[in-house]
């Protein structure tokens, strides 16, 4: 008998002070963390280097592949340090935002990390602080000072975000800080790089060029959190390796009632393109303070799974919350329950329904593998792959059986691990097709996942060392004629 069906949708956990120890990371991995996110808006390079080492060592000890996602800050505008960590501002009160450096902000005046703020806002513009919890309206501009009136008050805290809805700023997609952080990430071989505040496909092409110029091939995850990105999503999707639906800033930049529809549209587009998509932000937000999520949060996570997300993400819940491990466990439970309802899980449209035109060979083989697995009652689909692209194509059809991606490229292991339903397995170089098929049989039998005679579907490229082409699909029973 095969082992119980593994969870298909992956869980991304943000690391931070709440889990900044070997024990903390070990507990997250044990609870179900699949991808470790390092938020470069916070922490030093030394901090991040230490966490990378811990994640890699603990993942290896657990026999797991846990890729590292470097999340660049991007042109995020933030408040400076505020007196006592935070002060209260009240509705109707004046507040000056200034680009002039100051040691500590107060309820009357606070530093903002954007030199051109006074040049780009004008009377009547809205300014949102702290993910939209606070709202200001511009009353006048005087030199580097932007005078505002508080519309919605509350705690004004250090280094919280500043959003300028409906305003297009001139800030570059990669700041000087991002370039330094990018160089650090490339030097330390992160598995993914998340680009914040993407506005166009050219933003993604720019960072791709920089990565290639450094002699690296690290996939970029484009964070969709600006209305311009939604408008230019087709070009962004063509240039990027994957997408993050970053609903926090997106829900500030566009009307919040539009976010659920945009989320579904973006996920569907990624599914059709066979590119991984992460749904992020405020998924179990209440668990930062409470041991159980709200029913609405549980529903939100389940709906993200049913929409077709490859991964769901925890941010403050694991980085700074009181119950980081519990948050992962509960998310794992919610995801598994959603996945158990196979009737409402949908994959890519059937290829014949998409177009009458000839399909690329690799796409056709991937689709055929899923159909074969279903019609022959196979219990696994196994891909002999170099980059993992075949595994992603197969996963986009959301088959009802586990997918195993066998690769001889160590760097590809982490990239594959983000994809829905795929477990990466490292193997040595396979010179011939028969060698590759034999290795698949041996690995599955040695792992104890399946008994001899279990039917499986295998995809590969012929001749086997071929890269970038999957042109073979093979149905066999484990152990028969191959071991």
UniProtKB/TrEMBL annotation:
GO molecular function: ATP binding; kinase activity; magnesium ion binding; potassium ion binding; pyruvate kinase activity
PROSITE patterns: PYRUVATE_KINASE
SUPFAM superfamilies: Phosphoenolpyruvate/pyruvate domain, PK beta-barrel domain-like, PK C-terminal domain-like
EC number: 2.7.1.40
Record keywords, A-Z: ATP-binding, Glycolysis, Kinase, Magnesium, Metal-binding, Nucleotide-binding, Pyruvate, Transferase
Domain Pyruvate kinase barrel: 7-328
Reactions performed catalytically: pyruvate + ATP = phosphoenolpyruvate + ADP + H(+)
Pathway the protein takes part in: Carbohydrate degradation; glycolysis; pyruvate from D-glyceraldehyde 3-phosphate: step 5/5
Family matches, as Gene3D superfamilies: Phosphoenolpyruvate-binding domains (3.20.20.60), PK beta-barrel domain-like (2.40.33.10), Pyruvate kinase, C-terminal domain (3.40.1380.20)
Cofactor list: K(+); Mg(2+)
Residue ranges constituting the Pyruvate kinase C-terminal domain according to the UniProt record: 363-475
EC top class named in words: transferase
Family of the protein in this entry: Belongs to the pyruvate kinase family.
Protein name: Pyruvate kinase
Species of origin: Rubrivirga marina
